[in-house]
Design a protein that fits this description.
This protein is of the alpha/beta class. The protein has a domain of 172 residues: Metallo-beta-lactamase, Chain A. Helices cover 18% and strands 28% of the residues. The strands form two sheets. An eight-stranded mixed beta sheet has the order 4-5-1-2-3-6-7-8. It binds zinc ion. Zinc ion (ZN) binds next to helix 2.
């Protein structure tokens, strides 16, 4: 039986790896010239009778490139197994995903938008404005990745938003990395609450020290969002997952395994 006020199953999907040439971009003043590898997860959720995706990972097309492909800012994306195949492992096709929630529009989050043109997309309104505005390059967006999005299928969120209206999946507005960056709290029956904090921080050191990557859209907002995420996780006794934390990611089950 599936209750409506929880996510029955949460499948972390492997949305590829991102290899960045200079870690000091993420932590200014430290690790100059050191390469860093990031996990890029996205998350499939089963709620009621439907499938919802939080972010879409790096484009499946990158899997065809031996050794990956430099996508943006010298960052190499590597896809070992496509999202399509990972969904097939679970027994569903992209067409069965009826809802997509976007944390923000960087290539490692919106990369597979083209697989879900039929879905309803939840996007922060200020994020969407930045995606389609003339300053998209300043924010590091690649519009060709989301050109298939149908405006009539987009629900523009104004900051915090309860996706199903029952507390199972709540979006929290955490801007700073990008103008409309947001995070997602999911409520599971056995595993409890998970706060999927996307790119609020790339790894624990930055969260602990309030370090803001040099390319973030707003440093003050970034620090405030880090504080907000920590308070939220504390107040709700939630596990906090930083999407790009390679070390943490190695400890969590990935599809076809799931949490419930
Ligand atoms: Zn990212």
């Amino acid at each position: 039986m599936s209750a409506q006020n929880i996510i029955d199953r949460l499948y972390p999907l492997n949305g590829g790896l991102a290899v960045a040439p200079d870690r000091s971009v993420y932590t200014p003043g430290r690790w100059k010239g050191e390469q860093i590898t990031f996990s890029c997860n996205c998350y499939l959720m089963h709620h009621g009778s439907g499938w919802t995706l939080w972010d879409t990972g790096i484009s499946d097309g990158v899997a065809e490139e031996s050794g990956g492909k430099v996508i943006a800012h010298g960052i190499r994306g590597i896809v070992a197994r496509t999202l399509t195949l990972q969904l097939a492992d679970i027994g569903i096709s992209p067409a069965e995903v009826t809802t997509v929630i976007l944390s923000h529009a960087h290539f490692d989050h919106v990369g597979n938008a083209a697989l879900f043109p039929h879905a309803t997309w939840f996007i922060q309104s200020v994020e969407y404005a930045a995606m389609i505005g003339s300053d998209y390059a300043k924010y590091g967006y690649s519009p060709e990745l989301y050109q298939t999005l149908d405006k009539t299928k987009i629900v523009l969120m104004e900051e915090d938003h309860d996706i199903f209206g029952d507390g199972a999946a709540r979006v929290f507005f955490t801007p700073g990395h990008t103008p409309g960056h947001c995070s997602l709290m999911v409520h599971l029956s056995n595993a409890g609450k998970m706060l999927l904090a996307a790119d609020v921080a790339h790894y624990p050191y930055n969260l602990e020290h309030g370090c803001v990557p040099s390319f973030n859209s707003d440093a003050q907002q970034s620090v405030a969002s880090m504080q907000r995420i920590r308070s939220l996780a504390d107040a709700e006794s939630a596990q906090l997952w930083l999407n790009h934390d390679f070390v943490k990611s190695a400890t969590i089950p990935h599809a076809p395994a799931y949490l419930d």
